Structures are given as C-alpha cells and as structure tokens.
Amino acid sequence: MKRISLAFFSLLFAISSCITSDEFEVSPRGDFEALWKIIDERYCFFDFKREEYGLDWQEVHNRYSHRVHNSLSERALFQILAKMTRELRDGHVNLRTPFDVGRYAEWYESYPSNYSDSLERKYLGTALQHQIAGNLKYRVLRNNVGYVRCASFMNDIGEGNLHEVMLYLSACDGLIIDVRHNGGGRLSAAMDLASSFCNAPLVVGYISHKTGTGHADFSSPKAITLKPAKGLRWQKPVVVLANRRTYSAANAFVMFMKALPNVTFVGDRTGGGSGMPFSSELPGGWSIRFSASPIYDRHMQHTEFGIEPDQKISISSADFSRGIDTILECAISMLAKEAHSSNKAKFEEDIEKTTVSSNEDHRTPTQRTLRGRTVENIVKASLSHDENLPKGGSRKSVGQ
After folding, report:
1. pLDDT band at residue 135 under the 50/70/90 scheme
2. Angle at 266 between CA 262 and CA 269, to 5 degrees
3. Which of 117, 362, 384, 385 is the most buried (most CB within 10 A)?
C-alpha cells in the first residue's frame, strides 16, 4: 500500500470542480436523473451501506421516479430530491439551492447532545482565565490537568500555535483535548493537531478514490501517515472528548489519536463522516455535494457511522442542573488517578534503588542516618507529605 501526503488531499479537492453531470434537459426530470446518476457513479459508500442497512440505489430511483414530473415547482422538486438524498444517511450529502439546503441530520439529532456551551464557559472561565492560540482555547484545570478546546478545524493550526500550547501546559500531569461539537473542516488541521502527540511517523489510516463508475471501482488504499510535529510534543497521558456532533475532519482526528499509545477516548460515539466530499452541478444550476473518497482507520475499517469511545459516558441531567460536565469531570478524574499511580510507581522504583544501594553499604546504621532519620523513615514521611498536599501547596524535597 502506498503512502499519502497532504498534497494528495489538496489534489482531490482541486478536481472536485471537474465532476459534472452528463447532458440532461433543464427540467425537474432532468435534475432528478442527473442527481441520481451522479450519485450512482461517484458516491463511495454503496457497498458498505448495503451491508449496514440494505441500501439499494436502483430501488431508490424506482421509488422516487414516479413522483417527478415537469410541472413541479422548484420547492416541490427540492423536497423530493432532498428526501431522496437522505436515503444515503450521510451528513456530507447536501443539495444546495438559492432557497434551502437539503441535509441529513439524524446522525446527531437522534442522540443526546453531551455538550453545553454554558458548561464550556464555566470550565474555560472568563476571557482572562484562558489562553487562545489560533482556534484553540486552553488553560490549566484543577488537579494539574491541562485542557484544550478545539471547536473547529475550519482553519489550519500553525506550528507556532501548537508549540506555545504545549509549552504553556508542559508542567501538567495530563491533557484533555475536547472536540465535542466540532463539525470538522480541514483534514490537514486535524493532522497538525494530532502530530503534537506523535514521536515517529505512524500510519493512522488509509484512503481510496474512485477509478470508474461502478460501485466497487476504487484504487488500492493509500496509507495516511501522521508525522511528528517540529515543535514540542506531548509525552504524558491524553484524554480525547467527543460526542455525536464530532464529525468529518474531527472524526478523523479521533481516529488518528486512537492509533497512539497514550490516548483514551471518552464520551459518546462520534458522528462519523469519513468520506472526502466533492461537489457537482445539476442542469438547473443547483449543486450536490457527496462523499466520493472513503477514509478507513488503520485496520482498514470504515468509520463512516462513527467511532466508539474507550469509555462511554453522558452528561447526566442531575450534573447538568448543577453546572457539572460529567464527561469532562470523568476525564479529569482519570488523568489525576493515572498521574498519582505513575508518581507512586516512580517513587517506589526510586526507593527500591535506594534500598539496594543501602544494602550494599557496609557503614553502620548510625552512619547511614540522614539528618537524624533513616531511609525507611524518610520514605514514610515523604509519602505522607505527598498524599496530604493541600490545594495550592508546593511539593518540598525530602529533608527540607
């Protein structure tokens, strides 16, 4: 399988304008037939969705065709065509007209939100309590946990922005990346953010493109390789938060992050949207956008209908009424516990080394006493001090 670069994505977007319909008459019937054929020849998920829920595009044509006649008004035609495109169950499929946009919204409307902008403001604090770097908002939460809110990938994230975020949060014990309600944007921006957690080139997925008009006419998969950021890179535990409105490029970001060893995904299943969208024009001037190039995860599995979290959790009604973000609180607790376990393990390792060194020492117990206390007593005192450290207190070194 060949490897793929971001330049390839740019090329795919550039050729989207070249996808046009055959010559059909400018009429409701012409628009109907052109729309059906464009999707039939270029849409990329027919085989997958036939297996998932029995989609039969020819049957869809037969069912809707008798509803179309040339005396239809524009709005009546729009209602029929928009409903037909919703049979694809794809948030990337949009029928655009001067008066409305046909869209499929059940991928998130039928699920709990698991996000609240009022709760976000509570945790981010005022404008003076959090930092902003590009489209990233960030701050340090309690328990020394870093928090980064990424609401969109519509704009690229600069290397300088990422470096400054990592530098500011570098002393934190863990990091939360919140991409809930992130509807996507530039795939390159999603890759840039994920690169801050990658230390070596890593294949995180694959992409194919259509090579013919048949439903199964695709190129061989090309590897999508995540490359390490040039600036500071995060080495500690990470929790990614997502919900059903985590879609498209944000869905891909979750897919990239799940390929990394120190990342846990918490929240709800993502919304999916793993097809690269292209556009075409109908005879009457309306445009149709659709998924034309499928993206797979590193195991060559579809994520079109979303990615399951490592730990599924929702915002409870009781917590919401008290101004508590259940999902975010779960992430804070997870990282705090992991940091405590890691620090304890490191401490015990250091003590073991000290004990071995002490056993090999032939001095008398009195000579091995440090400032009037034995190594064993120092260990006990240090553990007690660490576990009872008051909020806002400073950690003193042993012997002070």
Report:
1. very high
2. 120
3. 385
